[in-house]
Each structure stands twice: as C-alpha cells, then as structure tokens.
Amino acid sequence: MRPGTRWQHRTAVRALAVTAAAGLALSACSGGSSTATGDATGGATDGASDATFIFAGSADPITLDGAYVSDGESLRAIQQIFEGLVTSKPGTTDVIPNLAESWTTSPDGKTWTFKLKSGVTFTDGTAFDAAAVCTNFDRWYNFKGIQQSASIAYYWTTVFGGFAKNEDDSLPPSLYSKCEATDATTATITLTKASSTFLSALSLPSFFIASPKALTEFKADEVSGTADAPVFSGTFGSEHPIGTGPFKLAKWEKGNQLILERNDTYWGAKAKIKTLVLKPIADGPARRQALEAGDIDGYDLVDPSDVQALKDGGYEILNRPAFNVAYVGFNQAIKPLDNPKVREAVAYALNRENVIKTNYPEGAQVATQFMPPEVFGYAKDVPTYAYDPAKAKALLAEAGVPNPTVEFWYPTDVSRPYMPNPEANYQLFKKDLEAVGFKVTTKSAPWNPDYLNQVDAGKAAIYLLGWTGDFGDPDNFIGTFFQSTQLQWGYKNKDLQSLLDKAEAETDLAKRTADYEQASKVIMTDLPGVPYAHTQPSLAFKAGVTGFVPSPTSSELFTDVTVPAK
Fold first, then answer.
1. Which pLDDT score, from 0 to 100, does residue 524 have?
2. Residue 374's pLDDT is what?
3. Alpha helices in 293-365, H assignment, sequence order
4. In 3D, which of 489, 468, 480, 475 has the Cα closest to residue 534?
5. What does the alpha-carbon distance between residue 187 and residue 137 come to, in Å, rounded to a whole number?
6. 12-282 domain in CATH 3.40.190.10?
7. Which residue has the higher pLDDT, 25 or 475?
8. Of the given ranges (23-27, 230-234, 472-476), which has the lowest mean pLDDT?
9. DSSP per-residue string spanning 428-468
10. What is the CATH number of domain 324-533?
11. I want to staple 506 with a disulfide (CB 3.0 to 4.6 A). Which of 166, 457, 512, 541 is the partner?
12. Which whole number is the average pLDDT over 214-237?
C-alpha cells in the first residue's frame, strides 16, 4: 500500500513527492504492463482463453467483504472482484486512476472531488456511479457495535479513526465527514482535516466499492459474535460479493478452493484466463509438492531453502520488492514487559543475524526499526540493540528479575512474506532468551482466526508478527502501529501519537520526513518490540506462465496471466 510518483490531478498543496517505491526494480517479471492512459487493467483485450490458472497461498480468505479484513489472503481475492477509486500501478505502489478518472483537492486539503468513469456496472447489472461511492463510504462510517472493533474494521480505524457515533471512548473522531454525489460521475468526499495518506489509502481493497443493492440484499452488515470471533450472518462476503472487477465469484469451497470466473462484461481489459482458482495450502513444502505434481500453476511464499532447487527444476522464481518488516512484539501491559530494562534485555538477547542467515532467503536484511529503508522517513540514527547476551543478563539483574518467566507466542499453519517459517524463527529466538536467563512458556495457535485475535486482543505477552505495507508512506508503517493505542502493544505515548498526527497532516515533505525520523527514534527508545527482518518474498511458477507482476504489497491482479497449453 504505497505511492511513488504523484498523479497529475493532485493539486500542488497535496502533491507530496513521496518516492518510496519509485526506485524499486521489479524482479524477473514478464508481461503485465499498464496501458498508455494509465488504466490499472493493462494489457490488450485480445488473448483471452478458456484456460484455468491455479494459484496457492497459505490460507483461506476470512471473508470477501473488504471492510472486515486486513490479511493478505483475503485482500488478494477481493482485489480480483472489486475495484476502488484508485489503485496501484502494477509492480509498484504508485497511485493511478481506477474507477475515478481524475481528482482535485481544495486548498485546505479537506475536500476531494473525484470524476468517475461512466458506463461501468457491477456484476449484478446495477450501475456504478457517485451514489454507489457515497453509499459505501457512508456504510463504513456508520458501522455499529462489533463492526467498530479494530480487529474487524481494521483499515477503517487505522486510516479514518472513528465512526459517526463512536461506541468506544478510545476511538478518535473520524477523519471522514461526508460524501456527496454532485451528479452521476462526480463524488465529493470531505474530510475533517487534511491527510497526506488519504489518497494512497484508497488503493486498499478494504476501500473498494461494492454494489449497494448487493450489500443490502445479502445483509453485509449482519455481524454478531465477538471481536475475537465475529460471525458474518449475511451471505454478501461468502456467496455474493458483487463488485466491478475483472473476475467474479463462481464458488467458494472453504478450506479447499476459491473459484473465480472472468467477468466478460468488465469495463476494461478482460482477463486472459477464464478461471482463477485460489487454493489455501498452509504448509510450504506442501505448496512446493503441489507445484511439482502439476496440481497448481504457481504459489506464494516459497520456502527460502526451496528456491535454488526449484530454479534447477525449471520453475520460474519471481521476487517481490522488499516492503515489509518482521518483529518480535511486546505487550507492555503484561509483566515483566512493563519494565523497560526487561524489554531491552530481550532486544540484546535476540540473535537476529542468525535468524536471517538460517531461515531467510538471499536479499533479506536485519531490521533496525519498524519500517523498511525504502520508505521516506527511515532514520539512520535510531537506538540499536546488537546481539549481546552479557548485556542482556546484566539488564535483567538491574531490573531485579534475573530469571523472568514470559509467554512467547508464534502462529501455526501459515507462512507470511516477512516470516516464511514462524516456528523456525521462534525456536531460535526461544533458545536465545533461555541462554540469558528467561524461562520461556511456549504458546502457539493457528494463524486465522485464533492467533491474530489473541494478539489483537492483548492476550500475547511476547509474539511473532510482521507487516507488509499497504502504500508507500511511513504512516502505513509506524502510523499504523503506534498512532493510536492498541491492545497488542499495551503501549501509549501521547507525545508520540501527537507527533504522528502532526506528520500525517503535514504537507511539506521535508518536515514530514523529519517528523517520522524523530518518531522512529522515540519508538526504538521506548522499545515496544524488536524489528528483525525485511525480506524479498519469492513466488514460484511452472515454466511458461507469463504476465504475473509481483506487487510490493501482494496486491496483484491476475488479468494478464497466461498459462501454457496443456
């Protein structure tokens, strides 16, 4: 989720020269170029076939309603079915038009007027227009009850803050004020304050536009259960996800496969394959075996140890541009992690270089802060914590807890771009902690929904997690983590939150950069966790597959993918 080259329709006051992704080189991709007009679909309309392309990720989507998800597997599927006002240029985080042809902003940066494409329809036959845009924004803004939970409406609370009527006192006022449909092709969105990240955030699938008719008919807002275990009673997100995208849902066999079919009424360049199958295969070796057996055509999150063998076997390996961070998180609300010396002891105890060398592919690097070097605002002089077991032991002695007991959590049944093998990382880090005197209690849970829900709810003391950025802005990294108080950290620094608020609204790039550099220094001094890796995740494809363009954010479209004749 991130931009580099500013789109021409942004006014001067909003034209921040964010260049985070502009210099990222795409590795070993073929096909998939964008059209001369900058449309997101790219490619020609010819070349369509009846072919099926089968792609394996590491988990099933949670739901196909983008408003309720933040995980990559859900967003990958949603990206094929729905579209937003803007999107990212393939292979980059540059913001380009999509359902909006152009946009302008008011001098104060609060009012955004989008000129929309005409003649676009949702796959239920209803018209896409400005009223549909406003219906979607007003739907999110008016979420109630459990819908307001940060673990459910994650991206809304991250980008827009609160709702029309906040039901939790910890929620801030909303960035969103209103949306007006001036005419069928003009939607005006008003914010409560200027935001330097608003446009980039709209490239997130969580803000893609759904059919208002389908949202109502298939009861998208019927959500019950708890924030940790929501129950989606309606069928919009499971059986009737209606968007304007190049694919539409054919069938979802949960736990087995999600089958999408080409949308032959699509307004843009039609997909070159007829059927796209997304399969959840949690185990990395099982994904490799499925590729070698011919059961799938490609897969994500290649185990680093498999890369060379797959290359030698004639398979094509593509790498994503690095745009992530893996970290060991601390919940400061759980003792003894409320003690800064204990947190420092953990940081000095962890041999991050060894984990990178042992468990990561070539190109991975040790992280020193909670965002990658490619993002502006990356600070070169943050406090660092080199591997030093003796110092870790001394800090525990100073803290008065030479042998503290801690629960250390890791996820099972998943591989993530920043964490290909969570258990392998955990085992090395556990050994490091035990070597300096920690007594480690192992806690693990399946990634979805148990692990994520436990961490989000503040139940995990020390835990493995990470983040693949959504758009090219430091707000999407350290702003996402620390601009508001979150249970997973048990950490609140009002001065830091004010600094991040200021940085988000700042329109001068040099001042924004300085603000984020200062924020990173504060974060790494307070030490809410230990960042340890930035990676270039690999994907594998059988020979002859073309047109797949790896995205830094894992938000690829499959429209230009072709497969060799069988």
1. 98
2. 82
3. 307-312, 340-349, 352-359
4. 468
5. 11
6. yes
7. 475
8. 23-27
9. HHHHHHHHTT-EEEEEEEEIIIIIHHHHHTT--SEEEEEEE
10. 3.10.105.10
11. 512
12. 94
Segment 522-526 mean pLDDT: 98
Nearest to 276 by CA among 51, 57, 72: 51
Determine the distance from the C-alpha atom of residue 384 to the mean position of all C-alpha atoms in its chain, rounded to a whole number: 26
Q: How far apart are CA 249 and CA 80, in angstroms?
A: 9
Q: What is the pLDDT of residues 535-566, one digit of tens each?
A: 988 999 999 999 999 988 888 999 999 998 86
CB 39 within 8 A of CB 557: no
Q: Which residue has the tokens 């597959």?
A: 545
| Cis peptide leading into residue 449 (ω within 30°) | yes
Q: According to the model, what pLDDT value does residue 158 have?
A: 85
Assign residue 227 a region: left if phi > 0, alpha if psi is -120 to 50, beta otherwise?
Answer: alpha
Two structure tokens written together for 201: 């955030």
Q: In sequence order, what are the beta bridge partners of 127? A: 121
Question: What radius of gyration, in Å, describes the C-alpha atoms of the chain?
Answer: 23
Q: How far apart are CA 494 and CA 485, in angstroms?
A: 9
Chain region(s) in the chain for CATH 3.40.190.10: 12-282
Q: What is the pTM of this model?
A: 0.74
Taking every pair of Cα atoms in the chain, the longest distance, rounded to a whole number of angstroms, is 71
Task: Tell me the average pLDDT of the chain.
Answer: 89
3-class DSSP state of 104: strand
The number of residues in the chain equals: 566
CA distances for 63 relative to 69, 153, 230, 396, 480, angstroms: 7, 12, 11, 44, 22
With tokens 């989507």, the residue in question is 61
**pLDDT tens digits, one per residue of 117-152:** 999 999 999 999 999 999 999 999 999 999 999 889
What percent of the chain is modeled with pLDDT above 70?
91
360-407, pLDDT tens digit by residue?
A: 888 899 999 999 988 889 999 999 999 999 999 999 999 999 999 999
Cβ burial, residue 427 (10 Å; 0-12/13-18/19+): middle
* Residue found under tokens 């011919």: 294
Q: Which residue has the tokens 């940085």?
A: 503
Cross-strand pairs, 183: 186
Which of 520, 493, 515 lies closest to 504, judged by CA? 515
Domain span(s) for CATH 3.10.105.10 in the chain: 324-533
Q: What share of the chain is helix, strand, coil (3-state, %, to 5)?
A: 30, 20, 50
